[in-house]
């Protein structure tokens, strides 16, 4: 157990204690047992929208940095391509889990891809097992692979039809991504429905803002150091 101030960034944290004077946070839903994440505002990386021989793919910039392509006889990370440019994949900088995820997406060595555009980070509003609502940021949403009920080919959740049942087949990305999704109840065989998409609003960080937290429902709050030191998590 530690205080929120001491806790690591971008890791699911369960609230186990709230100090005195934090009644306003309780009113906002920050209660004992709530799962939150401590995030960095600068982590709003764009999403790469790619065209491959198998169709469209959404790739978080963190993963795109590990895909090496060749252009003008030079090897560069996929993330360095300009919009509209084409290049062939020649290597990966990552382990087995990354390679398996990229293969599922159709990104294999020798494949030519085109960077169609860069998308801002969005919030995907979903219904889980027809019971509860959650909000997923782009980075996690793109790591959910499954099949729409209409019989269309398997795809990433953000590319599925709005409102249509979507059964999760596999979680992509790192073990940390799997853990983050599992914490909010998303695993293979989970049924999701994409209910809406909205841009992530700009977050104004005033002089008193020390850290930013986000809940599984997409609530984002700025906290000062005193508040963060009076929230205990594990």
Tell me about this structure.
The chain is α+β, with helices and mostly antiparallel strands. It folds into 3 domains: 2-42 and 201-233, Ferrous iron transport protein A (FeoA) (SH3 type barrels, Roll); 47-119, no CATH class; 122-199, no CATH class. The chain has helices at 23-27, 61-64, 96-104, 138-141, 175-183, 225-229, and strands at 2-3, 13-18, 35-39, 47-52, 55-60, 67-71, 74-77, 86-92, 112-119, 122-128, 132-137, 144-148, 155-156, 165-171, 191-199, 211-215, 220-223, 231-233. The strands form 3 sheets. A 6-stranded antiparallel beta sheet has the order 1-18-2-3-16-17. A 6-stranded antiparallel beta sheet has the order 5-4-9-8-6-7. A 6-stranded antiparallel beta sheet has the order 11-10-15-14-12-13. Strand 16 and strand 17 (220-223) form a beta hairpin. The longest helix is centred in the middle third of the chain and has 9 residues, at 96-104. The N and C termini lie close together (5 Å).
Précis, in short:
This protein has 234 residues and is an alpha+beta fold. 15% of the residues lie in helices and 41% in strands.
């Amino acid at each position: 157990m530690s205080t929120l101030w001491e806790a690591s960034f971008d890791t699911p944290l369960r609230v186990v204690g709230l100090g005195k004077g934090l009644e306003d946070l309780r009113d906002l839903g920050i209660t004992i047992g709530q799962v939150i994440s401590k995030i960095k505002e600068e982590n709003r990386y764009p999403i790469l929208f790619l065209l491959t021989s198998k169709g469209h793919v959404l790739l978080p910039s963190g993963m795109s940095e590990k895909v090496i392509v060749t252009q003008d006889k030079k090897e560069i990370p996929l993330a360095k391509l300009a919009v509209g440019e084409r290049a062939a994949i020649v290597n990966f900088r990552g382990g087995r889990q990354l390679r398996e995820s990229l293969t599922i997406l159709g990104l294999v060595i020798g494949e030519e891809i085109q960077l169609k555009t860069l998308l801002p980070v969005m919030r995907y509003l979903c219904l889980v097992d027809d019971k509860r609502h959650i909000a997923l940021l782009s980075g996690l949403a793109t790591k959910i692979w499954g099949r729409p009920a209409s019989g269309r080919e398997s795809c990433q959740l953000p590319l599925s039809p709005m409102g249509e049942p979507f059964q999760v087949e596999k979680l992509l990305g790192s073990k940390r991504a799997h853990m983050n999704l599992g914490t909010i109840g998303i695993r293979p065989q989970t049924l999701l429905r994409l209910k809406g998409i909205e841009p992530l609003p700009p977050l104004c960080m005033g002089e008193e803002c020390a850290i930013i937290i986000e809940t599984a429902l997409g609530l984002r709050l700025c906290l000062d150091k005193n508040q963060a030191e009076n929230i205990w998590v594990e």
